[in-house]
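Quick one:
INPUT:
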């Protein structure tokens, strides 16, 4: 990835895509990066409606619609900030494959939670699942109007990928000028699990707290920008997704690693990630690798 790689936003003319565009435009200005707006035209007719023939007239209309969505998005970006350096393009092909290819040269890929046209079902369908699983850069999923205040919330579990997420969360909090809430969970028990349940829970809690504190200290040491960020830790028992959503009630961004272990096992494609992406009211950043720091 180039040092000055752009922030890429996928648009399709939907309201949610425009919200994603606004998030991407603000991030581009904050990080002094260019903004690349991409529309995707799927050339396989079945991608729109089974049985529809992809005639030249239909293809031309789809291209025109995608170009219009891109132009409208660039106009919206300039309204967000006169300082944004935006350019747009329309690509042709399978949306998931196109966005995956583009992600290899992007700093961030930003998408709306629900789309239409060339990026239909961007969050919940096959396109979003593919991009979230295989993108070569962090993916930010925007569900609606973007909060302008509140902390950044990050889920950690001690895995390498959650360490990358923690680094990205520190960076985002510093750039947004806000605080960071670090959430980690440990197993909880219901009913009469065994006679020393309280003692075992205390051991889980203390071990998890020690691990989180160590991870935060390491990032403060390795990343100078982290010194400007106020950190609160939330170590709680139970399933990760509800705890993250609860901590993010007033957040402006949630950051998660693409795959976790322990309390965050299957964080990308399993029930935890799906629950957070389905229910979060603020943007969610999915971090894929150490390079995301």
């Amino acid at each position: 990835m180039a040092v000055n790689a752009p922030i890429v936003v996928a648009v399709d003319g939907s309201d949610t895509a425009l919200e994603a565009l606004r998030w991407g435009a603000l991030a581009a200005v904050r990080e002094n990066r260019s903004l690349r707006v991409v529309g995707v035209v799927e050339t396989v007719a079945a991608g729109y409606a089974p049985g529809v023939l992809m005639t030249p007239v239909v293809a031309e209309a789809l291209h025109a619609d995608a170009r219009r969505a891109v132009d409208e998005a660039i106009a919206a970006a300039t309204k967000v900030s006169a300082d944004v350096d935006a350019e747009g393009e329309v690509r042709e092909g399978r949306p998931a494959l196109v966005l995956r290819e583009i992600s290899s040269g992007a700093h961030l890929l930003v998408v709306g939670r629900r789309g239409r046209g060339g990026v239909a079902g961007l969050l919940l369908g096959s396109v979003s699942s593919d991009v979230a699983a295989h993108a070569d850069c962090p993916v930010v999923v925007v569900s609606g109007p973007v909060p302008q205040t509140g902390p950044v919330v990050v889920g950690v579990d001690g895995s390498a990928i959650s360490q990358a997420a923690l680094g990205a969360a520190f960076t985002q909090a510093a750039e947004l000028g806000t605080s960071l809430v670090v959430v980690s969970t440990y197993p909880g028990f219901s009913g009469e699990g065994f006679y020393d349940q309280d003692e075992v829970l205390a051991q889980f809690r203390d071990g998890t707290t020690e691990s989180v504190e160590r991870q935060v200290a390491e990032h403060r040491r390795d990343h100078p920008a982290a010194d400007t960020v106020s950190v609160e830790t939330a170590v709680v028992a139970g399933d990760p997704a509800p705890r993250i959503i609860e901590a993010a009630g007033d957040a402006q961004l949630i950051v998660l690693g693409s795959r976790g272990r322990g309390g965050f096992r299957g964080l990308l494609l399993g029930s935890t990630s799906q629950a957070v992406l389905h229910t979060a009211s603020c943007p969610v950043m999915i971090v894929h690798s150490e390079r995301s720091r």
